[in-house]
Amino acid sequence: MRNKAMIAGFTALCLSAGAVLAQDAPQILRQDDMKQIGRAMGQLGAIAKGQKDYDPVVVEGALSTIATEAKDFTTHFPPDSQSGHDTEASPAIWENMDDFKAHADKLAAEADALLADLPADQAAVGKAMKALGANCGACHELYRVKN
């Protein structure tokens, strides 16, 4: 009876450790970065479309998130992370890592520039969205596997 309890406890510990390790997997970390950027773009999009009122605090927070996550994003592409965890990363990333990093750097720089000269109204947020979205789209076109 004691052995069964010990085996059950050990199994639970192993499963918990596996879940923790999976959360730290580079694929999961980069997916989390993209989700954060996507949420931020969604906030900006809602303002640009007039679905939400212009709020400089929201705009600044969204742009800050985009800048921060874009700077962190490329750190999660070690050579052994080309597959697994439902990654949508294209093998082209590892073949063209400098170009891939340049796209992320450009997105971060655009977000930083917008933070320095914060869009002041709905129309300016829409213009910012076009610039940011074009960069996102170009990178996705080259470096995201289409499912």
From TrEMBL:
Query: For binding heme c, which residues are annotated in this chain's numbering?
Result: 136, 139-140
**Signal peptide positions (record):** 1-22
Q: List the Gene Ontology MF annotations in alphabetical order.
A: electron transfer activity; heme binding; iron ion binding
Q: Which Pfam families match?
A: Cytochrom_C_2
Which Gene3D superfamilies does the protein's record reference?
Answer: Cytochrome c/b562 (1.20.120.10)
Alphabetical UniProt keywords? Electron transport, Heme, Iron, Metal-binding, Signal, Transport
Note the superkingdom of the native organism. Answer: Bacteria
Q: Which GO terms describe its biological process?
A: electron transport chain
The identity of this protein, by name, is Cytochrome c556
Annotated organism of origin? Martelella mediterranea
